[in-house]
Amino acid sequence: MTEQRPVNEAAAKPAILPDAQTVTSVQHWTDRLFSFRTTRPASLRFRSGEFVMIGLMGDPDPKTGKQKPILRAYSIASPSWDDELEFYSIKVQDGPLTSKLQHIQPGDQVILRPKPVGTLVHDALLPGDRLWFFATGTGLAPFASLIRDPETYERFDKVILTHTCRDVAELEYGRRLVDHVKSDEMMRELTDGGVDKLVYYPTTTREQSPKMGRITDLLTSGEAFRDLGVDGITPETDRAMVCGSMGLNTDMKTILEGFGLEEGANSDPKHYVVEKAFVG
Ligand SMILES: Cc1cc2nc3c(=O)[nH]c(=O)nc-3n(C[C@H](O)[C@H](O)[C@H](O)COP(=O)(O)OP(=O)(O)OC[C@H]3O[C@@H](n4cnc5c(N)ncnc54)[C@H](O)[C@@H]3O)c2cc1C
């Protein structure tokens, strides 16, 4: 007769990741970009525009067999009221995290450390008339959250989202999102029609498109202002959030300070805020 042992339930189940959330959908936009949605921990509160650490378990150590999580900073692309979380991601072919993350499927688990932080938040800006979001590449992610937040339209009369990428296909996630925000019945209701205040200004730097050029050049030449029918940027009326490469952020700081804007922070709200879209 075989001995009956109590079943070890934890051992019987597949390994559950710490702080695990379940992937609910995945969409690939180009060979370098994808977005995905996950369940949201009931206890997670965040401000639209903030980022969290997300990741996957790494491969087992060949000697010890132990696995360590590979975690990276990710802006939450969904607004704070959404039941799920959305992320917009690069695929770096030899990147420790995204070489694996790009293969996730609905039902898979990702690790999410529920400690949201960041400077691209309304609390870091003084009140103003017009809000500019300046993004390159995946730097769009925090603004994907903020353009779906009713507070953005309560605080400002006009919201201008600029997004610059090398190729047209890299604009597609943002373009669809803006279309959705402007046409969706629930978004209109949530913002009391405020979404009509949103102006979208996409540009490409490599592939031919209706508007070509770096946003920095388009601002300094005044072309962007002429296109948008805006007089310029002043500390009296304008507020700005910037999210892109180190180069974009540095150049945008110089440009915005040239217009007289001062950099703000959560503890000291001013005219503009900046965050890196990635390190390197
Ligand atoms: C505050 C903050 C928020 C971030 N939010 C996002 C986000 O919402 N979406 C996202 O995809 N990434 C975001 N990142 C970058 C992210 O943390 C990782 O770097 C990225 O997921 C790649 O991870 P990896 O381990 O594959 O490669 P890593 O070793 O982290 O990066 C390898 C190299 O790839 C390049 N790279 C990394 N990320 C990007 C990127 N997003 N765009 C272009 N080149 C990149 C850099 O040259 C980097 O040195 C954010 C970074 C910071 C600091």
TrEMBL record:
Gene Ontology biological-process annotations: cellular response to oxidative stress; heme catabolic process
Cofactors, names only: FAD
Keyword check for Oxidoreductase: yes
Gene Ontology MF annotations: ferredoxin-NADP+ reductase activity
Name listed for the protein in its UniProt record: ferredoxin--NADP(+) reductase
PROSITE patterns per UniProt: FAD_FR
Keywords, comma-separated and alphabetical: FAD, Flavoprotein, NADP, Oxidoreductase
Enzyme Commission (EC) number: 1.18.1.2
PANTHER family, per database record: FLAVODOXIN_FERREDOXIN--NADP REDUCTASE, OXIDOREDUCTASE FAD/NAD(P)-BINDING DOMAIN PROTEIN
Catalytic activity: 2 reduced [2Fe-2S]-[ferredoxin] + NADP(+) + H(+) = 2 oxidized [2Fe-2S]-[ferredoxin] + NADPH
Family: Belongs to the ferredoxin--NADP reductase type 1 family.
Keyword DNA repair: no
Domain FAD-binding FR-type: 16-123
